[in-house]
Write a structure and sequence with these properties.
By secondary structure, the chain is mostly helical. The chain contains eleven helices and no strands. The chain has two domains: 55 residues; 93 residues, Serine Threonine Protein Phosphatase 5, Tetratricopeptide repeat (Alpha Horseshoe).
Amino acid sequence: MTRKKTSITEPKKTAPAQSGSTGKTAAAVGPLSGDALQLKTFELAIQLFSQRKLAEARERFVEATKGPAAHISDKARAFIQVCDRRTGGLAVQVLTAEEHFNHGVERLNARDVERAKQHLDRALQLEPDADHILYIMALCCGLAGDATGACENLRRAIDLEPRNRILARQDPEFLGLASQFPSLRTLLERGSY
């Protein structure tokens, strides 16, 4: 019994479809398939993302989520979240001190210290004697490497609410900062100014 060998690498031979009088094949000028169009849109979005054109990249990622390839849609959704985080959620309008405080905490948790500090600064402009805002601002300053700012803000938070010293002594992030900054360690250990 002999079996006929077939070549897997040998493509089927078909005549190219002509498009008008240009002599180009339909594949070269025709519309891309859904998968190919989705992939092309995703690749464009990646280029814009790498150029830090996040708003434009986000728009293209949104387009890419609508294509038929689930794995590309999933990746595009992940990049949309990254764009949103890096732009600070463009659609959110922050007005009150508490809203600025909450956004500052969220940015600080994401280790976006610069944006956190901006929100916390604004919150303190609106409520300069809010001890909870001063406490988080002290932490933010410390994480930014600003020992003076960390001490000044924590000292004010403690003056307004003495319980903040106990909280800071039990806070693992403040304990880590206290090991870096002797002035902060002194403030927490002895309670001296």
